[in-house]
Amino acid sequence: MFSGQPIIDHKKEICGGVATIREIKDVHKLINQIVGARALFTFSDIIGESGCFQNSIKIAQELAGSTSSIILQGESGTGKEMFAQAIHNASSFSHGPFIAINCGAIPRDLIESELFGYEDGAFTGARRGGRAGKFELANEGTIFLDEIGDMPLETQVSLLRVLQEKQVVRIGGYKSIPINVRVIAATNKNLEDEVRKGNFRKDLFYRLNVISINVPPLRSREGDVLLLARYYIRKFSIMLGYTVCNLDTEAESSLEMYQWPGNVRELANAMERAVNLAKGKTIRMEHLPEHLQKPVKTGRNKVMDIENLEKEIIIDTLKSVNWNISRGSLMLGMARNTLYRKLNKYGITIQ
Ligand SMILES: Nc1ncnc2c1ncn2[C@@H]1O[C@H](COP(=O)(O)OP(=O)(O)OP(=O)(O)O)[C@@H](O)[C@H]1O
Ligand SMILES: [Mg+2]
To answer: Which of left, alpha, beta for 172 (phi over 0: left; psi -120 to 50: alpha)?
Structure first.
């Protein structure tokens, strides 16, 4: 980047100038500092003591130092983004930026220019002077490709090329820009299934799947529900100015029995609501969301029909909000497109 400043003499005439030339890499660094492209979480922020969860943390910690690509697989709200940030902060890329991009949330025709950038005049509506893509901005740091399972097939081809060649060419450009970026991808889909169905390229899957870490759902994390519930009660009580309260035993067992389809995000929302309602007093059943107050049909040790339970919860929740998908997805702690997918999966029609 080149910028200049004129030098004006006592006669108010320009007698010279100072030109500053900065490497564009340094400018990107500055941009990242300003827009806050930093990872906030470290491994010590991740709460969970259950064996399966600790196991995932251990694998993530051990492999954080490697430069290989990582795929984080897990249901919505299990903490994949937290893991990605913690891995970044424990890696040799931690001094660089952490750039997250949600591949499912960007319109198909914009995703390539978001990722790879474009040159001046690459397409109508392109900004003058072109624009750097996320890969360029993430240089020397980590790029977090969230919801990679939703990436269009055409983009997958371009992504594979960038990963193999370790350089990007902006859309409409010809110059190769070398990049040194750690890639962490996340998905709540089963990517192997998506490969089988032809929705995800096999070659890209193998390229990314060098290290695969499974982030387990909350319902399979023995003991972590109450641990997290107490953490959130404390956090929200302090935030809202109430004294930190307890859960009564009935509320505790109801939390433990529940299946938490929206995982930690759903639990956090439920605890925020409970703290608001209990106002510093002991949290009881009546402070929990309605669908947690129902007597649980299956015992903890019995084999539960999780899918049926999830279907029932989705229907109940949607009924309670008059089938308003936005509010329903908020209450369930589930992204809208995840909810639509589940409606489709369970054959639920919106009423
Ligand atoms: N083990 C944990 N300890 C503390 N907080 C957690 C933990 N796991 C998740 N959270 C919190 O739960 C919320 C959801 O986590 P996150 O966004 O990482 O989930 P995700 O797996 O990326 O979900 P999605 O697939 O829906 O994007 C965040 O607010 C995060 O801080
Ligand atoms: Mg996420």
So the answer is: left
